[in-house]
Structure formats: C-alpha cells, structure tokens
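Protein modeling request. Please complete all fields; requests missing the sequence field cannot be processed.
Requester role: graduate student
Desired output: 3D structure, token encoding
Chains: 1
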Amino acid sequence: MAEKQATKTEEIVAEKQAYELYLMVKPTASEQELESIRQAIVGALEKRHGMVQRADQFKKEQLAQPIRKIGFAYISTISFWIDAQSATLLEEDLKVVEGDIMRWLITKELPKKAESTKPARVRKPRVEVATPAAVATPEAPKKEAAASAMKEEEQVTLDDIDKKLDEIMGNL
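Delivered output (172 residues):
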C-alpha cells in the first residue's frame, strides 16, 4: 500500500517542476492576517493542482533597503511542485490575493546535479625551504632586544639635528 502511494507521488512529481515563493508582507499585518494570506496562497496552489512541500511561518526581519519607506517586513517562503502552465496562472492568482503583500517572487528550483565520477583534484602540499634567516635560534630574541635598545640610544633629537646643520652651514 505504501509503495503504491510512493509510486503515485513520484509520478506526480515527475510531471511537475519545483518552485519556491518568496513573500514579503507589511509589518502592520496582524497574526490573523498573516495566516489568512498564507492560507489563501496555499488554496491558490491547490486550486492549480500544486503540491505544497514546505510552508514556513512568517518572521519579522529588517530589510536591507526600505520599500515604500518601510524598513521591516514579515517574510516567508513556500516550496511547492506545480506544472509550468499552472505556474503562470498562479502568478495571476497571487495578484488577486488581498492583504498587505509588499513583494513576492516565484523562482524555479533547478534540479541538483548528480555527483560526477571524476575524482576530486588533489593539491600537493606546499614545501617551504628553511633559509638561514628564517631559522630561529635561542639567541635570536636576545639579538633583537639588543638591536632595539641600540636604536633607542641612537634616536636623534631636534637639537642634535640643529647643531649638525649649524656645523655644516658654518663650513660653507
């Protein structure tokens, strides 16, 4: 019995294409209005002999760009199967659905590609050759500390520069 139902579902799916409806509703809509919009869309799908695969609940989200000076919206997605001719008729039904719908978009889901039998490309690990400068010795930190101390001692002040300039100018 279960095998017959699975076979029937596979036959129906083979004739139809997978689509996804992305829906944006104004943030002023109440919970009842959101549910009535969702039920109206599911009803329109069933009217056109579509099969709802998944219908997400509405979530309030901030928009990246305001639409008609509105920065937030309730967003939901509905995944469904329907034939191509009915999909175009469904778009007309969505225009008639009353409510605070700001935007909607139907996209066709592409079939997933079968995994290829071609082996994955393997990258060889990169071998780094150690140079004498790159090899760290226990004395290296001591040398660096000594070099930085010498630099601090060798720092020249503006007075030193002025004296040196006077000596040079005096020799001219």
